[in-house]
Every structure is written in structure tokens, then in C-alpha cells.
């Protein structure tokens, strides 16, 4: 394994680990925007790692470092699922409120006239 590629893999794994650790630290308060930003940053690092791994293989130590990062995937997925469920509930409540509100609102044609006749 060439030294520069080994260093690059180590660097990418380190960045991936730091990104994951900082995200996990405040996982319960992460909102959908932070999750989206995390996923985008992680995707960039993973793409770079794939490019290097097309040329070089990981050492056993690097594989272990990657396994440690991937061990957090389950709880990250749970948080993402929780946010998805919260969004679905909010949409259902919004649609229910909208439906209930429209029942009480009268719809009038804006071009219509009311005519009284005198007897």
C-alpha cells in the first residue's frame, strides 16, 4: 500500500469518525436540517473513500476504524425514522385542522349579488 493512499484513507476515516461523533453527541436534539447536513457531509467523505479504495485496499486497522463508525448507523437511522414520524404526524394534524376549518368556512362566489325585493 502506498504511503500517500494509506495516509489519505486514515485522514478520511478520521474525518468520518469526527463527523459521526459530533453528530451523535447531540443526537436527540438534532433536527431534520442538521440530519440532512450530516448526511451530505458524510456522503462526500464516503465518495472520497470509495475513490481511494478503488486503488488501494484498507489495512485491518483501518477496517476496524470503519466498523466503529458504522456501529453508529443503527441509532442514526432510528433518529431519522423518529424525525420522519414526527413530520408525518404534523402533516396529519395540519390536514385534519384544515379539513375541520373548511367545514365552518362558507364559500361565496365573489361575483354574486344579493337582491332584496320589496313587496
Structure commentary:
This protein is mainly α. The chain has one domain. The chain has helices at residues 3-25, 32-53, 60-70, 73-104. The mean pLDDT is 87.
Show the helix and strand layout.
Layout: H1 3-25, H2 32-53, H3 60-70, H4 73-104
Helix pairs in contact: 1-2, 1-3
TL;DR of this structure?
The protein is built from four helices and no strands. By secondary structure, the chain is an all-alpha fold.
- The count of domains is 1
Average of the residue pLDDT scores = 87
Global structural class: mainly alpha
Number of helices: 4
- Give the end-to-end Cα distance, rounded to a whole number of Å: 103 Å
Characterize the biggest β-sheet.
Answer: none
Whole-angstrom Rg = 27 Å
Kindly estimate the percentage of residues that lie in beta strands according to DSSP. Answer: under 5%
Give the total of beta strands: 0
How much helical structure, as a percent, in the residues? over 70%
SSE run: HHHH
- The backbone outline, from C-alpha atoms, is rod-shaped
- Low-confidence blocks of residues: none
Provide keyphrases for this structure.
single chain; 119 residues; mainly alpha; 4 helices
